[in-house]
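Try this one yourself first.
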């Protein structure tokens, strides 16, 4: 009887937890235009703690001034990104989060500094982008 109850309990736990398929992404595929487009498909894109770099990349990939200088097909790799600042704080719940971030992106010998911020109930937004 105890064994049957344990088995039923395990089946119920598996039913509620389920299994998730996870795609393994090669390091070279991170931060590419395709990777950023994939991340943007999420309904919560721009709200998460780790979305700061993807919001900054989306800006760099879509900025007309940068495209005029470097074309519209350049790709950024993990070696081209430097995190200067990425910090934040939660307000009671971990999903109620505000933060600031600052990154540099190297494109063809040119370095761009992108600063972002996020309020408690808003998405990450670009505060500034300048060539340094």
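Now uncover the answer:
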């Amino acid at each position: 009887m105890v064994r049957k109850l344990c088995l039923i309990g395990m089946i119920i736990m598996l039913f509620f937890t389920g299994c998730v398929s996870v795609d393994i992404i090669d390091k070279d595929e991170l931060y590419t235009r395709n990777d950023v487009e994939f991340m943007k498909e999420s309904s919560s894109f721009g709200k998460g703690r780790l979305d700061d770099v993807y919001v900054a990349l989306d800006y760099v990939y879509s900025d007309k001034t940068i495209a005029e200088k470097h074309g519209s097909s350049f790709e950024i790799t993990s070696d081209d990104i430097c995190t200067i600042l990425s910090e934040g704080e939660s307000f009671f719940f971990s999903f109620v989060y505000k933060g600031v971030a600052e990154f540099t992106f190297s494109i063809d010998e040119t370095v761009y500094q992108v600063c972002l911020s996020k309020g408690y109930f808003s998405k990450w937004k670009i505060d500034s982008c300048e060539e340094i």
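Discussion: The helical segments are 2-17, 33-40, 52-62, 64-70. Residues 68 and 112 are 14 Å apart (CA to CA).
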